[in-house]
Amino acid sequence: MRRNKVFAAGAAALALGLSLTACGTTEDKKGSGGSGGDAACDLKLAFFGPETGDAAGLGKPIIQGAQLAIDQYNEEHSDCEVEFVKRDSQGSPDAAPALATDVAGDDSIIGVVGPAFSGESAAAGPIFAEVGVPTVSPSATNPALSENGWDTFHRALGNDATQGPAAARYIKDTLKASTVYVIDDASEYGAGLAGIVEEDLGDAVVGTDTIQQKQTDFSATVTKVTDAKPDAVFFGGYYAEATILIGQLRNGGWDGTFVVADGVKDPAFLDAGKAAEGTIITCPCIPDTDPAVAEFAKSYEAAFGEAPGTYAAEAYDAASIFLDGIGDGIDNREDMLKFVNDYDEKGITKQLKFDDKGEPADVHVYAYTVKDGAIVPEGEIK
């Protein structure tokens, strides 16, 4: 393992800035891009995703997860620190090309943690690929992203071709739902995921509908669902719309099981109150019941004063890959891209290794449920 992922247990030590063994000994270093294996200097890592706007709740833990990895690296390299810069897309595909062009033009940005969402990944991907900026997304799950031939694209989690079937299995095998209504938010992520779930559920689907992001009146959709009387509703989309949608469905008299995916796994969804109770959330994000993630959660909470949110640990892993390369002396994008493509090390969330399309070799999908006003892990969906 290039960076020792073992966290100290003492809260006092954590508060002072836990240090990880960042790069091993001098003898361990390969020096694949620098002189003699010494850490490269004057470099930046970029976050690309929502820092503000409606989706900021999903961006915050990604930013903080990456920040923690960088802060710990810098503790070990105080004379040669890595700078963390943020490119705030607000989760919008429309904003992505200009931001990607900005990143591409700054040669000191040697890697990108992100893009966070699928739509912005599709818009920014060609620009990153053209100039060779390696990216590792901790959260973009649309399967088509790895089919574009971008050598620069990687993701640190399973895509919706694994999450969608897992959600469908849970609906059929665990919920025993015989009828399901499928709704999406027309986004690249939401529509893609909902389509996979619909296909896998087959004849169990009694209706489909599409809403729009930033929509607040779902009365037409509520009428369609209550008329169909499904045992379950699957929604492909993000927490902003899901929070309102479930409230209106409950007010409309529907009492079945609401099933959503990782785009809804945010504390803001709990603002729906009683209406959110019993909601099932699927996510390719590992719960903090895992020992390694639990130790990560302690240091995260010490640093930021709150528990890690969705994809914080995956963002830590994504940043750590780049930091391993920088620690090995890599100081240019070409060598960093080769380093990432060849990477095969144990991370917090999984064995971090990519296939030739940038997909992770180690994929798991987990179920969570909203219980007593909290999002509680149920376990892996086998």
TrEMBL record:
Source species, domain of life: Bacteria
Family, similarity comment: Belongs to the leucine-binding protein family.
Lineage start: Bacteria, Bacillati, Actinomycetota, Actinomycetes, Propionibacteriales
A Pfam family matched in the record: Peripla_BP_6
Claim: rRNA-binding is one of the keywords in the record: no
InterPro entries for this protein: Leu-bd (IPR028081), Peripla_BP_I (IPR028082)
Position of the signal peptide: 1-24
Amino-acid biosynthesis found in the keyword field: no
Keyword vocabulary terms for this entry: Signal
Domain Leucine-binding protein: 43-373
Protein name stated in the entry: Branched-chain amino acid ABC transporter substrate-binding protein
